[in-house]
Specification:
The chain has 14 helices and eleven strands. With 385 residues, the protein is an alpha/beta fold. The chain has a six-stranded parallel β-sheet, with helices on one face. Strand 7, helix 11 and strand 8 form a beta-alpha-beta unit. Helix 6 packs across helix 9.
Length: 385
């Protein structure tokens, strides 16, 4: 390693010599550097060392995050996945949101700023050269938002397997009726234990323990899945070739979501992700956040959902909704703009047909023409008394 030695004869210069007496005696050439140049070299070496140290530590953190994390407060010897340890809303019932078009609220020095659906549609509307680009390539003007649960992956099957494993561990049985199994997939864990399952009275501490254990079993099943929904890869490839940006909206954490997409080889098809770290309070807010990340107005976005509550949230955000028939029958998805049984039934032209109607749409701002009032006439008296 070279060292910097200040020259006594030339105080305004810096001599760069090899370190060590033997190397100094053997060296025949002396390099004179400007002080600022020498300082720049020293800073670069230090920054390089810091980057190497940071990269080494970051590799360890990422590896631990993608596998499992250790909880210092946990007295048990076993590791608990993030979804169970952090209490993520994995099986919670979320609100629909945006029933009256409300969006986000932020604060500025001038006062509070309410960013609702109409505000986003107006501010994110294409202008200038962007309109010309979308006129030549109309498919790029749309934004597609995919819900994670039972759209990209059959999560209901994983959830039922986790319930069966939990019942086997607790020595209990699960109902065999289709209606009760459907309620197990739609309700939260506490409501399932209270209303659906006949497991007796369960204390609050037991509900928390069973919820964490169910999330742990679900994560174990999720880690072994590598096949997405049928026809999804072909549909995403067609959208990728057409230049349509796509996003994923999920209540999972970002690390688990990216790891699952990477295992299914679907990560390259998505441009943005909305996860638990974004702190969205409802389904509609998650869709609005995805639209902002895609840089598309909500009125130009299409949501792929399988739940009627998600379809209602999409319509509250002035988005189009495409329903996947499967977890819910077709007669419960009649409010969607398009209902399909598989992604194989879709084509890029279906996106244009969704926006073909240019008339008055739901919750669109309509300009009301003001009637011109007649000019006021000044009264004049013709007769003087």
């Amino acid at each position: 390693m070279n060292s910097l030695v200040q020259s006594a004869s030339t105080p305004s210069s810096v001599v760069l010599q090899p370190a060590g007496a033997a190397s100094i005696a053997a060296s025949k050439t002396v390099v004179l550097l400007h002080p600022f140049r020498a300082l720049s070299i020293v800073c670069r070496v230090k920054n390089w060392k810091r980057r190497r140290a940071w990269q080494g530590s970051s590799r360890v953190v990422v590896k631990a995050s993608f596998s499992r994390e250790y909880d210092a407060d946990d007295s048990s010897d076993s590791f608990t996945p993030y979804l169970a340890r952090k209490g993520a809303n994995l099986f919670a019932e979320e609100e629909i949101g945006a029933e009256h078009g409300e969006g986000f609220a932020t604060f500025r020095p001038t006062g509070p700023l309410h960013v609702d659906v109409d505000f986003l549609n107006d501010r994110m509307r294409e202008r200038g050269l962007q309109r010309i680009r979308y006129a030549m390539k109309p498919d790029e003007a749309f934004g597609l938002i995919f819900s994670w649960d039972n759209v990209l992956l059959n999560t209901h099957a994983l959830r039922m397997v986790a319930w069966h494993r939990l019942a086997a561990e607790e020595g209990q049985t699960l109902p065999l009726s289709a209606e009760k199994q459907r309620q197990m997939l739609c309700f939260s864990v506490d409501r399932v234990l209270e209303l659906v399952l006949d497991w007796g009275h369960v204390r609050e501490s037991e509900v928390e323990r069973l919820t964490k254990r169910l999330a742990t079993l679900y994560c174990e099943e999720l880690a072994s899945v590598q096949v997405p929904m049928e026809g999804l890869r072909t549909w995403l490839e067609a959208l990728f070739n057409a230049g349509v940006p796509c996003a994923v909206a999920s209540s999972m954490d970002r690390i688990s979501l990216l790891a699952a997409l990477q295992r299914m080889n679907l990560l390259k098809y998505f441009k943005s992700f909305v996860t638990e770290e974004d702190g969205m309070e409802s389904i509609a807010h998650r869709f609005l956040s995805a639209a902002v990340k895609l840089d598309r107005p909500p009125a130009k976005c299409v949501v792929f959902e399988d739940d009627p509550r998600g379809i209602a949230a999409a319509h509250n955000c002035t988005m189009k909704a495409v329903a996947l028939i499967g977890s819910h029958p077709a007669y419960e998805l009649t409010q969607s703009d398009l209902a399909v049984s598989s992604f194989a039934d879709l084509s890029v032209m279906n996106l244009r047909r969704l926006f073909a109607n240019k008339g008055a749409e739901f919750m669109d701002l309509q300009k009301q023409p003001e009637e011109k009032k007649p000019a006021k006439r000044r009264l004049m008296m013709d007769t003087w008394f």
